[in-house]
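Example 3.2
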Amino acid sequence: MTAFNNERYLKLQAENILKRIEQFNNKLYLEFGGKIFDDYHASRVLPGFQIDSKVQMLLGLRDKVEVIITISARDIETSKMRADYGISYEDEVLRMIDAFHELDLYVGSVVITKYNKEPEVKRFERKLKSIGIPMFYHYQIEGYPTDTDKIVSEEGFGKNDFIETTRSLIVVTAPGPGSGKMATCLSQLYHENKRGVNAGYAKFETFPVWNLNLMHPVNIAYEAATVDLEDINMIDSFHLESYGENAVSYNRDLSTFPILKNILKKITGKEIYKSPTDMGVNMIKQCITDDEVVRKAAEAEIIRRYYNAMCDHKKGLCSQESAQRIEIMMNKLDISAKDRKVIEAALAKEEKEKKNVVAIELPNGKIITGKESTLLSASSAALINVLKEITNIPEEMFLLSPSILEGIFKTKQNTSSSTTYNFLKLI
């Protein structure tokens, strides 16, 4: 069920970004948090939100947009991986460049942040040169982010390369957290202001949603999604003091805001923002059309995150503490790990068949299951059974002949170095 007006969101978000550009002498550095492509989390908690909404919004402003991608030298050196895609931050930068180019969005440069002459960076630079992307260096500043006198000086931001930009909206994005997006924006503001350009800074925000209740499931779902980062939603005390109204932010933004405020004031000579909330552009709430549906979707996402954390714990990828923190969130909302319909169906059939079972809920509410056997996994079986259901193929009819599956099984056995296959058979 659709509960979010995506078209209205694109319109409002673009309008408010244009207002920010006008506010700052037609030059805005916009820090893009979260995923710029394929935002599946937002689409799950906001039914109707399109996974490419951020990109679609930028396409509407294409002539004004220039993209800067940041990546930390440390992440290149350590070959840091994205957990969701299973690729390195370095490869993700290249993937992002290709994706932007396919959409005809201009990528102006890549910035290496926290650079300290790491040898692996030069290899990456050669890759970028081969595809015609300029690369710039920003250095680790001693005393960052607290020593504002040092930071806002020729020994601080002044040492960084200045990136010549040609558009009015500079989108600063990255392959993942900790890549130096905000520091890059601030460094550019320093250099722009030295050149007499009154450029500005803002954040493209999705979560937490500042004007939803602190305990709204959508905001709690953000906490569950970032449990590994230990993000905690909080009331923006700076916003409350300045405007007398509650607004939701999170711990990292709140703790760094006084420092950021001082840096911006030193660069521009004036107070730009009174609170972390002021910095963001977030029109999510205005586009929710059915709050109850959104609440249910967010609660389902929190439960999903709980099971993900439990699986990661069993794989040795995280401590049990992550799952326990999500469990506390679930208790706050009075929801249980068994509240998703598919859980009860999967567990009931697993108990009956004594095999692993996967359950899928269709849009019409019907639950379809699949169990393991000798040729197909439970997941594969469930997907095939779903296909049979939606195409009205009788349950007893084979969608894939066992002889074909056996051939695939033998081929994989013979060509793979692994000896631990557990291909399972459809019901």
